[in-house]
Structures are given as C-alpha cells and as structure tokens.
Amino acid sequence: MMSLIQQIIGYTLTGLGALFYFYAGLGLLKMPDFYTKLQASTKATTLGTFSMILGVGILNPSFIGKSLLLVAFIALTNPVASSLMIRAAYKNKVPTCGVTIVDEIANGGEKHD
Amino acid sequence: MSGIFLVDLIVFGLTGLGIFFSLLRFLMGPSSFERLMSVDMMNIMFVGLISLLAYVFKNTMYMDIAILYGLLAFVETIVFARYLEHHAEQPAVSSESKVGEGDVK
Q1: Which of A44, A60, A63, A103 has its CA 20 to 30 A from that of B25?
Q2: B interface mutation test: which of A7, A23, A45 has the most B CBs within 10 A?
Q3: Among A106-110, B5-9, B16-20, B80-84, the least confident range
Q4: Which residues 4-63 in chain B show a CB within 8 A of chain A?
Q5: Can you give chain B as a three-state secondary structure string?
Q6: Which residues have CB under 8 Å from B98's CB, separation 6+?
Q7: Which of A7, A67, A83, A84 to mutate to test the interface with B (most CBs of B within 10 A)?
Q8: pLDDT tens digits along B29-53
Q9: Any domain includes B95
C-alpha cells in the first residue's frame, strides 16, 4: 500500500516535470524576443528539473540523497547562468521586440561596473 | 505493469519534444545569444533525462553522471557568456528585427 502511494506521487511529479519541459521548449520556439524567450525557458526548466528529480528520488528511495544534492545544485547554478546570459545580451544591445516600453537599467536602476 | 511502462513512455516523449524544440531554436536562432540560450536549456533538460534513466535502469551511476553533466554545463554557459559579452562579432540588429517583425506587428 505504501508502495502504491509512493508510485502515484513519484509518477505525478515526474510527469509534471516532463510537461514543464515541453512548455519550456514551446516558449523557446514561439516567443518573439530574446529576453522573453530566456525568461520563459529558464523559469519553466528550473521548476521542471526540481519536479522531475524529486519524483525520481521518491520513486526509488535509494536515490534521494543524490537527488536532493542535484536539486540544490540546479537551484544555485541555473539563475546565475541565465543572469550572465541576459547581461551579455544587454551589453551587446540585442534589440527587444516592438512592444517593450520599460528599460530600467538605462535609467540608472542598476549599475554595471 | 504495462500501464507504468506507458507512463514512462509519455514522460520520455514530452521531454524529447522539449529537447527537439530547443534544437530547432538552436538551428534557426537569429543571433548567437539565442544559440547559447538554447544550448543551456538543452543541457538542463538532459540532466533531468539522465536522472530519469537512473530510475529506469535502476543504477545509481546515472545520478553521478547527471551531477557531473550539470557542473560541466554550468561551466560551459559561464565561459561562452563571458566570451560573447566582450567579443561578439556584430549585434545583428538587421536580421533580428527582420525576424521579430512577423511575430509581433
């Protein structure tokens, strides 16, 4: 009985992660702009990785230590990598799509060395 | 048991569709920044996929492979982003605006 509940929770989490991966790919393909593409794909992929790896750790409890380590690692590195990419793109003046009207970095919102 | 196999098949299919869309964006991305972004997303999807292989094959070694792959993917993204920040060839304004017109206006 315990194994059935464990399998239901694990497969639900894993399927949710796969669904978020699919949405991340869809957003990466269909968004009009570099910045919107990066926002959609980064957020969806981070949440999908959390869900999928925790689902694997619940399905087979001997993996739970390494899966928690992997979740912590992804949570530390993925926002840093996306922040560096968006900073490189902003410094090289990658244009936004036509409907963007607010640019807070150009108005002194954040200082770049 | 065949129902559980079907769930595995659905999960692998959805993840494969995500990786395929990301590969498509890599092939037709207008600027090199979008190619870098799609490679980063593909690497993180591969981390999830490898950890799912650890469950399917019941082998702990795949979790170590996933951790190491994630580390190498992070280093790769950092290096390419720092390189493109200072050494980008051209901002590619003309081709970018030409591509973006069809979606928005």
Answers
A1: A103
A2: A45
A3: A106-110
A4: 4, 7, 10-15, 17-22, 24-25, 31, 33-34, 36-38, 40-41, 44-45, 47-48, 51-52, 54-55, 58, 60, 63
A5: CHHHHHHHHHHHHHHHHHHHHHHHHHHHCCCHHHHHHHHHHHHHHHHHHHHHHHHHHCCCHHHHHHHHHHHHHHHHHHHHHHHHHHHCCCCCHHHHHHHHHHHHC
A6: none
A7: A84
A8: 788 889 999 999 999 999 999 999 9
A9: no
ipTM given for this complex: 0.86
Residue B46 in domain: yes
Shortest distance between the Cα of A108 and any Cα of chain B, in A, equals 20
Which residues in chain B have their CB less than 8 angstroms from residue A50's CB?
Answer: none
Q: What is the pTM of this model?
A: 0.83
pLDDT tens-digit series, residues A57-74:
999 889 899 999 999 999
Is residue B26 assigned to a domain? yes
